[in-house]
Amino acid sequence: MHTVIMAGGRGRRLAPYTINFPKPLVPVGEMPILEIVLRQLKIAGCETATLAVGHLAELIMAYFGKGEQVGVDLQYSGEKQPLGTVGPLALMEDLPENFLVMNGDVLTTLDYRELYQYHLQNECDLTIACHRCSTKIDLGIVEFDERLEVTGYREKPRLPYDVSMGVYAFNRKALDIVPAGEYYDLPTLVLKFIELGRKVKVYMSDAMWLDIGRVEDYASASAVFEEHRDLFLPEPQLANGTPKN
Asked: Which end of the chain is more exposed for a tag (fewer CB within 10 A), N or C?
């Protein structure tokens, strides 16, 4: 299983941490968020990964090198200008027929192997890992029909919605429509696929998933990681079920 990790963004919402520091190297606990991701991928069976780097790429490359410390063979693909969440893929040669793509700042307990197998079994062009969230509305929601007659009333309800987790499975043929060297993001790709009738499916997950895009989210995510470290980074198991030393 090969994974492409988008690690080239500036992380402006996480300033001041990211002014002189690439977002994937921001620590969660005692290690950078990207190191957590790579160690999770190793546990899931990922042997190789390509890091799409840009902003402060030299710091990321100096820290991870060829991936010896995380047990994943690392390659790097540089972008001279921001290319969005999909554009960097057009610069990469020799990608396998199917592969994972994810943001470099995702903190989740998602089973990457299960997502990948789901993608293969359904023969998708693109599979999007999704998480069910809800938001409390601190107002009364009035429901009515086309005649403006009230049909319902909900006081301060919680409204559910499904969000992308920032983790995807791609088939290589999905890149046929991605222009090389141009900015291209995932929403544009998804809408184009819908227009063309290409197969895009959702993989629903109830795994823990934390957004660390803003300073307040980062502090909360760090606390959750420390409390549930064994869920994010479980000990590798031997064949008899006992932990490896």
From this structure: C
Which ranges constitute the DSSP H helices of 78-185? 112-122
Say how far apart CA 88 and CA 179 lie, in whole Å.
Answer: 10
- Answer yes or no: CATH 3.90.960.10 is held by domain 2-129+163-232: no
Q: What is the CA radius of gyration of the chain?
A: 20
**Treating both helix axes as pointing N-terminal to C-terminal, what angle do 33-44 and 112-122 enclose, rounded to 10 degrees?**
60
- Write out pLDDT tens, residues 61-97: 999 999 999 999 999 999 888 899 999 999 998 899 9
Question: Of 82 and 161, which is predicted with more confidence?
Answer: 161
Cα–Cα distance measured from residue 5 to residue 100, given in angstroms and rounded to the nearest whole number: 8
Q: pLDDT tens digit string along 169-179?
A: 999 999 999 99
